[in-house]
Amino acid sequence: MPTLLTRRLALLADEKHRGVLGGGLRGIERETLRVDGAGHLAHTPHPVALGSALTHPQITTDYAETLLEFITPAESDIAVTLDKLEGIHRYAYSKLGDELLWSQSMPCRLPAEEDIDIAWYGSSNLGTLKHVYRRGLALRYGKAMQCIAGIHYNYSLDERLWRVLAENEPQGAKRLSAKSYQSEAYLATIRNFRRYSWLLMYLFGASPVLSSNFLRGRAHKLETLSDDTLYLPYATSLRMSDLGYQNDAQSGLSPHENCLDSYVAALTKAVNQPYEPYAALGTKRDGEWIQLSTNVLQIENEYYSTIRPKRVIQTGERPIQALCARGVQYIEVRCMDVDPFEPVGVSLQAGRFLDAFLLFCALEESPAIAPEEGARHTENFARTVKEGRRPGLTLNNGQAEVTLQSWGAELLERIRPVAELLDTLRGDSQHADAMQAQAAKLADAGLTPSAKVLAALRANGKSFAAFALAQSEKHAAHFRSHPPSADEAAYFDGMAAVSLAEQAEMEAAPQSNFDDYVAAYRASNLCHSQQVSE
């Protein structure tokens, strides 16, 4: 009996449908700290030469003032996306002076909490709202957490592809509107991602070590590698472990990704449900806003997830409203570490593999996830980020405990036909080659990025700070030896000028009272479930 995956692959391999596979979009958001020449956190404001962090579409800041975020345009080929990301880096380096971009997900040695500046977006109500939200994050999670960097991979499939699948599904699927079918198909993709994303952490996790001052005295079970470095010997990604963005308030939030209605309902509840420890702090201290609300989440983006359903928002709209009104448009994969061996933080080979992996997640059967199954996926992920390279490590596949290597190899075999179909479309073997490279990592854990990081540290004094600074310097030399062309510089200079003018215009416009602005913003998240399934 052919499986759903094989039926769908045969359908998309048909000459009349094959073109829809080339129509999806890929975008990358890369976060990176600005540091000085000694590898210490920069204390300069966001460089005005880069434009406005509030309004620039490609160069902004995330949580800390020094945490740059580079956002590529969405492109149909990940190779083009990475070229765009390279261009943003080269332009940034032309404006950074002596500063460097940190090459790691985990931050450099950090100063005291009070000396880490929260990102500032100017005096407009929108800018102030973004700043106060980050004050709330600092209050809830600590500022050190706001210096962690990652790679976010934004992925969509051609809307025509969903229509092709819908037309060839059983009768029940055909009764859904195109919008509802697409939304539910993306939610099914996310459920499969939950099932199998431990594999990404083994293959691409690159943060097995961290600076010893990062934990700020918190209890931990890490081992000492050197005076300034803590680690776990078999870890793949401490960034994605319980040492990252975790807290008790969010611990009761389960993904609710069995349908869009329940996902939206769960987030709507979380942004409206008071949480006693936050309520005890209040929203203001000495008349100054310290957080946007005392609820489980201040806004829905505070839900820290490895993957999110997304929709491009319109001016003044909230993410929940966009999903309600127009359904899911793409997914955002948020668990990828910055690759410290790649100047832009991610390789083309990783992108090709992600495309095959995510298309597999989209086409493979994906039943609803019961709570006990969800707990199993969470446990598999947690084991992999802390112990992924441990010889003989087992995961639970729902039937039995199996070795990570054997399950990983089985998964790659299931993904292989997807990679081959993508290569047929391209007329080359890039996806199959990426699959081969991942199979080699499963056969030899020493080939994983996390193992390579540890090997590099052990060969060079065992200091995370020294290794990270050396990589940062190497990447800086790469970008500085390839400055932007005159046309590229003019393009980014123009974007910077427009963004600064837009921020100035917002600040010059009449502003409502900020308290009223926050109240209106918080009231705007009301979302009626019947809107989702129209």
UniProtKB/TrEMBL annotation:
Protein family membership:
Belongs to the glutamate--cysteine ligase type 1 family. Type 1 subfamily.
HAMAP family registered for this protein in UniProt: Glu_cys_ligase
> What is the top EC class of this enzyme, as a single word?
ligase
Q: What is the reaction catalyzed?
A: L-cysteine + L-glutamate + ATP = gamma-L-glutamyl-L-cysteine + ADP + phosphate + H(+)
Listed NCBIfam families:
glu_cys_ligase
Its annotated pathway? Sulfur metabolism; glutathione biosynthesis; glutathione from L-cysteine and L-glutamate: step 1/2
> InterPro entries attached here?
Gln_synth/guanido_kin_cat_dom (IPR014746), Glu_cys_ligase (IPR007370), Glut_cys_ligase (IPR006334)
Q: Tell me which EC number(s) this protein carries.
A: 6.3.2.2
Keyword Chaperone tagged: no
Q: Does the keyword Cytoplasm feature in the UniProt annotation?
A: no
Q: What is this protein called?
A: Glutamate--cysteine ligase
Tell me where in this chain the Glutamate--cysteine ligase domain is found: 10-382
Q: Name one GO molecular function term.
A: glutamate-cysteine ligase activity
Native species: Duganella aceris
